[in-house]
């Protein structure tokens, strides 16, 4: 479903600050895969997501979704294929608009602009059903300004907005990292439920190794733009956090991977 072929990108080439973010990597995801990517800061995780989403131009390589080459498509053209949830809960929602209005914006994302009825009773009923998946009571707060929600509620809303159009690929960019542990666990539980509910293909970046082992059917460890480790279920299910630390090898970076 997703094919990344020979993806390469170097920042500041030919200077003392030259840094290879992606070193000609290949990645294939099949329908329904849930792939988790871990690695230290600067390993290339966000560069990989940015390249797939269209925010980062590749020096070499190609990206295909369902066989269609999207390498040269800008972010807004890839919106019909891809949804993304960022680390910052404030990035995915409009604070002065209501929960229902934010949901409507998500519904219209990536579609051809045209005059359509707005927040109909039918749409609001659909939004209540979708938000009920979260178990956060947001289905009863459709008229509340999003700016009044907690960080965890806003991130959970961002998640539902991202999956509401059933994208071909969902990108999760450390989407629980800015939350306290209890809220992060709540959002992650909601994430698992939403992925199962909509049957999505997912690529998730995290620093949390326990989370990486508990979630998904595939695991990739990145370092200096390379894939240092790739495992899939059932081998993935046998790994432990100490196993990952041992395989990472770089002692100075171990503290950047959370147990």
List the helices and strands and how they pair.
Layout: E1 2-11, E2 19-29, E3 34-38, H1 45-53, E4 60-65, E5 68-69, H2 75-78, E6 82-85, H3 99-108, H4 121-132, H5 151-163, E7 169-173, H6 181-198, E8 202-205, H7 209-214, E9 218-223, E10 226-232, H8 241-248
Parallel strand pairs: 3-8, 3-9, 6-7, 7-8
Antiparallel strand pairs: 1-2, 1-4, 4-5, 9-10
Helix pairs in contact: 3-5, 5-6
CATH superfamily: P-loop containing nucleotide triphosphate hydrolases
CATH topology: Rossmann fold
Gyration radius over CA: 19 Å
The portion of residues assigned to helices is 25-40%
Residue ranges: pLDDT <50 for 5 or more in a row? 251-256
The number of distinct β-strands equals: 10
Number of discrete helical segments: 8
Mean pLDDT: 88
In CATH, what is the class? Alpha Beta
Query: How do the helices and strands follow one another from N- to C-terminus?
Result: EEEHEEHEHHHEHEHEEH
CATH architecture descriptor name: 3-Layer(aba) Sandwich
Strand content: 15-25%
Termini gap: 31 Å
Number of domains: 1
Structural class: alpha/beta
Explained architecture:
The protein is an alpha/beta fold. The chain has one domain: Rossmann fold (3-Layer(aba) Sandwich), CATH 3.40.50.300. The protein has 8 helices and 10 strands. The chain has helices spanning 45-53, 75-78, 99-108, 121-132, 151-163, 181-198, 209-214, 241-248, and strands spanning 2-11, 19-29, 34-38, 60-65, 68-69, 82-85, 169-173, 202-205, 218-223, 226-232. The strands form 2 sheets. A 6-stranded mixed sheet has the order 6-7-8-3-9-10, with helices on both faces. It has a 4-stranded antiparallel sheet with strand order 2-1-4-5, covered by helices on one side. Helix 3 packs parallel to helix 5 and helix 5 runs parallel beside helix 6. The longest helix has 18 residues, at 181-198. The protein starts with a strand and ends in an 11-residue tail after the last helix. The relative contact order is 0.18. The model is unreliable at 251-256 (pLDDT under 50).
